[in-house]
Amino acid sequence: MFRGIPYAADFPGFIGHTLIAGAPIEMDRSFHRFALPAITTEINGDTYVYPNPASDHLMIDGLDGSVVEISVANALGSVFRRERIPSGTENWSLDLLGIAPGMYVILLRRQAMEPTDGGTLTEPTFGRFCPWSAILFHPPA
């Protein structure tokens, strides 16, 4: 049996409801089945991730050529897949085989030109993860 934290009778969530001691709060046992439509998720103005939900692969289109790494991470930040992308790549297919069903975050990291010696640009360095990310739903097969 489910036991919850007792609330005071004047709890705002009870307003407009008749409360009977010992009676179940909700007995709606209806079941609704629906399919999630495949959607395209926009990461930034020109970068798109599809299909979402994805099963075996994920397409990422419209990369600006500076993205050099794509990572798939869970809500705790654990990275399950990391792929290096050749410079100048605009479209990429990410293999999801071997990744357990669940919700993940797609992170894109780009190569950034940053001063390395106090002001002089000597060579490209890897910047932090850019703010381009998308939530991916990977359902069970």
Provide an overview of this structure.
- This protein has 141 residues and is mostly beta strands.
- It has one domain (34-138): Sandwich (Immunoglobulin-like).
- Helix content is 0%, strand content 40%.
- It contains no helices and 8 strands.
- It has strands spanning 39-42, 48-52, 57-61, 67-73, 79-84, 91-95, 102-112, 125-138.
- The protein has a 4-stranded antiparallel sheet, with no helix packed on it. A 4-stranded antiparallel sheet has the order 5-4-7-8, with no helix packed on it.
- The radius of gyration is 23 Å and the shape is elongated.
- The two termini are 32 Å apart.
- The relative contact order is 0.19.
- The model is unreliable at 120-132 (pLDDT under 50).
Instruction: Briefly note the CATH topology name.
Output: Immunoglobulin-like
Work out the helicity level: under 10%
Structural class computed from helices and strand pairing? mainly beta
Radius of gyration: 23 Å
Give a brief outline of the structure.
The protein is mostly beta strands. It has one domain: Immunoglobulin-like (Sandwich). Helices cover 0% and strands 40% of the residues.
